[in-house]
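Chain X:
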Amino acid sequence: MTPAEHPLPSAEICLTIPFHDVDMMQIVWHGHYVRYLEIARCALLEALDYDYNDMRESGFGWPVIDMRLRYVAPAIFTQEIAIEARLTEWENRLKIDYTIRDSATRKRLNRAWTVQVAVGVEDREMRLESPAVLREKIVAWQQRQV
């Protein structure tokens, strides 16, 4: 089956850049982008019906083990931005790709990705493949899309 027949979830959130996120040039400080990714990732996980509380209750933590951000253009004070999070891998890890755009023009401001792995809450051991609960959530999400 093709990827089009088995789509993966995505989510997009919008936010307006607040004053406390900018430097003296009214440009978003680079470290705040990590928080923006987290907000979009939480929306994606909620769409999948497997948010951080569900993860913990299922016996797994999912720490971010790798992250990459590529800055294209700055976000500025009061600008409305859209952050899209797209699940791109899930069999052995969660890989999520992100695109941050200006909400009005859709001009790309940033590209990023994060990688998370399943870790047992009780034994703190990293799993070499994603647990069955994630596979079940992906299949259930795909079935809801039909």
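Chain Y:
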Amino acid sequence: MAEANTITLTRENFDAVINGEKPVLVDFWASWCGPCRAVAPVIDEISAEFSGKIVVGKVNVDEEAELVQRYKIMSIPTIIMFKNGQAVEKIIGARQKNDFVDMINRNL
């Protein structure tokens, strides 16, 4: 199995990453959030499985208030799919892996 290549996104690198050539899956999370911790291994699996096809990034909502406001994150985890710099689909809350995979496949 390929190794997870999840990157940490901050306000400094966020725009450059989402405007790249590949679609980007962004996980807005926090360390104190139980559902976020439940989803984290799934996001890492997806990162490994879709390596080379998409970029997977994580935004710590406690550290990146500017990004939280920009994307109106009200609940976590919130997972947003970006394509060509635009948010194209969003999942709020912990879900099964196949829900995330389906979202990715619709946006490849």
